[in-house]
Amino acid sequence: MSLPGYDYLRSLFFLVDEERAHHLALGAARAAQCVLRTSGSPAIDPRLASEVLGVRFPGPIGLAAGFDKNAIAPHLWGALGFGFAEMGTVTAHPQSGNAKPRMFRVPEAKALINRLGFNNEGADAVAARLADVLASPGPTPLGMNVGCSRKVMGDEAAELEDVAHSVRCLVRFADYIAVNVSSPNTPGLRDLQAPERLSRLVAAVMTAASEQQAAPPVFVKLAPDLPDDQFASIAQAALGAGAGGLIATNTTIERPGLRGTAGQEGGGLSGAPLRQRADVCVRLLRAAVGPDVPIIGVGGLSSTQDVLSRIAAGADLVSLYSGLIYEGPLLAADLNRGLLQEIESRGLRDFDGLRQALQAEPESP
After folding, report:
1. Is 364 within the bounds of a domain?
2. Contact status, residue 51 vs residue 350, Cβ threshold 8 Å
3. Does the residue 365 lie in any domain?
4. How many domains does the chain have?
5. What residue numbers bound the domain in which 35 lies?
6. Which strands, in side-by-side order, build the sheet including 111-114?
7. How far is CA 183 from each of CA 145, 166, 318, rounded to the nearest angstrom?
8. How do strand 317-320 and strand 295-298 relate by DSSP bridges?
């Protein structure tokens, strides 16, 4: 069930510059959060709950990093049907990001291109906001997505301390930490996926996180543009340094199926054109790490069938961003209903049973 009138509302948003529309949406989210904190929010059906690395997720559909970079509305997302939400990407230093314009819609492909460049208020400011708004923690798990500040890239000691500082600031608010080494919009960042460098970076994150008595699990977010034969070694480097799980994928610098001038803009592509590659990346990672390492699948999800396909590829949870722009704010709730229908039609008890059934099925040719 889509939000009544969303087609009209979307047409109005699309009259506004992409980044301004995003800020307007976050402003509305902040206002809605104030109402929901006092009125309560609808519960996600308990059959959709699962436990991953000791964290209870009320539902498998999450908000991907990038939408709420500065933790403007952390209490809102559960009310919209999200089982978790990832704040950030946050850097140690405040950053204005790349030159504008830097966000572009591709409506005919249900896609977005961005070259934002980790624009955010910085870890200290985000932590201060979270200390205020999370005075009474909500039931929705929050991931804290951290990345290197642009000004330190190329100085490995500074890179390690930069990310460690962000972790120290944010770890007390985190149900999990996500390490972003895969955005295409900060020069040199994707070089951190090289196994030796990634191993040292994750080790620094683990050390910083362990300064909290009960350190949350750490996930590493990988790029879809990695060669297929590199996923295994990169995943093993992350896990060997202490990461508990993986996120696949970030945006792509490829332009599958895009035509026209919008597709020529530089930056990372998200949305429907990324869907097939994201499925492949999750499948490659699952084959590389075996059945027990959690994987969060991201990229091109906007329908129940998309989610089922990603879970069948090996994802334990999924998260989305671009789908919200094209399908509306009730997308997560819609997907939850679709998953419940699938559970019931198969005669299963819960989401864990559905995930196991999907991943046991032979891969389609």
Report:
1. no
2. no
3. no
4. 1
5. 6-359
6. 103-106, 111-114, 268-271
7. 12, 17, 18
8. parallel
* DSSP category for residue 71: -
Q: If we measure between CA atoms, which residue out of 185, 298, 285 comes closest to residue 243?
A: 285
247 alpha carbon, distance to own chain's centre:
8
Block residue for tokens 């405040």: 94
- Which residue's entry shows tokens 């929901």? 36
Which amino acid is residue 114, in one-letter code? N
What string of pLDDT tens digits covers the 365 residues of the chain? 455 555 655 666 665 666 766 666 666 655 555 444 444 445 799 999 999 999 999 999 999 999 999 999 888 889 889 999 999 999 999 999 999 999 999 999 999 999 999 999 999 999 999 999 886 667 899 999 999 999 999 999 999 999 999 999 999 999 999 999 999 999 999 999 999 999 999 999 999 999 977 899 999 999 999 999 999 999 999 999 999 999 999 999 999 989 877 778 999 999 999 999 999 999 999 999 999 999 999 999 999 999 999 999 999 999 999 999 899 888 999 999 999 999 999 999 999 999 999 999 987 65
What angle is formed at CA 277 by the lines to CA 276 and CA 281, rounded to 5 degrees?
120
1 within a domain of the structure (yes/no): no
49-78: burial string, b at 16+ Cβ within 10 Å, e else:
bbebbebebbbbbbbbbbbbbbbbbbbbbb
Confirm whether 160 is domain-assigned: yes
3-state secondary structure 123-179: HHHHHHHHHHHCCCCCCCCEEEEECCCHHHCCCHHHHHHHHHHHHHHHHHHCCEEEE
**H or E element that contains 103:** strand 103-106
Q: What is the CATH number of the domain that holds 223?
A: 3.20.20.70
Residues serving a catalytic function are 183
